[in-house]
Amino acid sequence: MKPFKDKYSHIYIDLESIRQVKLDNGQIFLYKIKNNPKLTKNEIKNYVYEKVIKSFFNNKAKIKNRKSGEPLIVGVNNKFISISHSKNYFAFYISNFSKIGVDIEMNRDIPIAGYSYFMNEDELSNKWSKNEVLSIWCAKEAFIKLNKGKVKDWKEALTVKEISKNQITAFAFGKKIIFAKIQTNIYTFVYSLTIL
């Protein structure tokens, strides 16, 4: 995507497309802000959301949030979106299906003392690497979005059973749920493959 300016005429945001994933049910786009604009996190987030959505659809398209916090594309029919961001990285999952979920996180070590906040007893009984623990976090975040925020106990609702290089296998509500995983030396990115 070409760099652009907006109402902050003195601000220049250089937004780079770093990855696109085509799926049967939609597409995923990853972007990175290459420079450091002097805006608040919220201003940057809103700015990127608006510019990216308008570049996909038209100038009438906007992102609004439902009361649950779920993003909604206004001005476009039959398209749904899941969004995640971490630092200067943004992920957009656009689909014809409403139940989708995506999460991106900068790679980091989650303290062992924090594992019990989001991992259930079954998950805690396994020996996971630090990268796998972050992948579990991402899968649970994507799962919450997949379920439109209607997950009462995210720790217990989804149980991750297996993590491979490119995939996470989990179970929720008696169903097998598959997530794709892309992990670089900078970020971990997880998105839902299973349509509920």
Task: Give a description of the structure.
This protein is an alpha+beta fold and 196 residues long. The chain folds into two domains: 15-100, no CATH class; 105-192, no CATH class. Helix content is 23%, strand content 36%. It has five helices and eleven strands. The two termini are 32 Å apart. Mean pLDDT is 88; it is low at 1-6.
**Strand arrangement, major sheet:** 7-11-10-9-8
Low-pLDDT ranges: 1-6
Structural class: alpha+beta
| Domain unit count | 2
Radius of gyration: 17 Å
Oligomer: single chain
**In percent, how helical is the residue content?**
10-25%
Count of helices?
5
Q: State the order of secondary-structure elements, H for helix, E for strand.
A: EEHEEEEEHHHHEEEE
Major sheet characteristics: 5 strands, antiparallel
Distance between the termini: 32 Å
Global outline: globular
* Fraction of residues in β-strands: 35-45%
Provide mean pLDDT, rounded. 88
Question: What is the number of strand segments?
Answer: 11
